[in-house]
């Protein structure tokens, strides 16, 4: 069933539809919150779902549920990271190159290294990388979620890629 139909069913008061919506999106919300906060935070995830439950009746464009959900999640994360978001953005360091492909055991280690490198990025850059690459949101949807112009998302993506390359190179994954 499409998210749009689930949202409409929720707006009509069907409790089972909300439970299904939560089942469908809970892992995504948990992953996003966990990566942005460098670890799981059930309180923030619950805060997100409470805000979704309260706000769903007022969502005018059910087809835009995903960006709306990420906007709510981002707001909860920003509340938790307010101090970090208040700091000025950093300028990227030197760029390196990513790791070469290897066998499956190395791939598991690579995922850990990438997760650590992602965690080392400034929060704004980490956020756009996750939304764009891991959650498959468009640049326009990322801009809506982050509350910034499309050009800002593009520059943050470019900066994030450079920082990610540099971090991976620092860990010995550069060529």
Automatic annotation (TrEMBL):
Record has NAD as a keyword: no
Pfam families per record: Sigma70_r2, Sigma70_r4_2
PANTHER family: RNA POLYMERASE ECF-TYPE SIGMA FACTO, RNA POLYMERASE SIGMA FACTOR HI_1459-RELATED
Protein name: RNA polymerase subunit sigma-24
Matching InterPro entries: RNA_pol_sigma-70-like (IPR039425), RNA_pol_sigma-70_dom (IPR014284), RNA_pol_sigma70_r2 (IPR007627), RNA_pol_sigma70_r4_t2 (IPR013249), RNA_pol_sigma_r2 (IPR013325), RNA_pol_sigma_r3/r4-like (IPR013324), WH-like_DNA-bd_sf (IPR036388)
UniProt entry keywords in alphabetical sequence: DNA-binding, Sigma factor, Transcription, Transcription regulation
Domain RNA polymerase sigma factor 70 region 4 type, first and last residues per copy: 112-161
Domain RNA polymerase sigma-70 region, chain residue ranges per copy: 21-84
Assigned protein family: Belongs to the sigma-70 factor family. ECF subfamily.
